[in-house]
Amino acid sequence: MLHDDPHAHTLLPPEPELRVKALETLLVAKGLVDPATLDAIVEQMQNHVGPRAGARVVARAWTDPAFRARILADPMPDLIEMELTGAQGEHVVVVENTPEVHNVVVCTLCSCYPWPLLGVPPAWYKSDAYRARVVREPRAVLAEFGLGLPDTQAVRVWDSTAEMRYLILPMQPEASRGLDAGALEAWVTRNAMIGTGLPEAPA
Ligand code: FE
Question: Which single residue of 38, 72, 164, 187 has CA 20 to 30 Å from 193?
Answer without folding.
Answer: 38
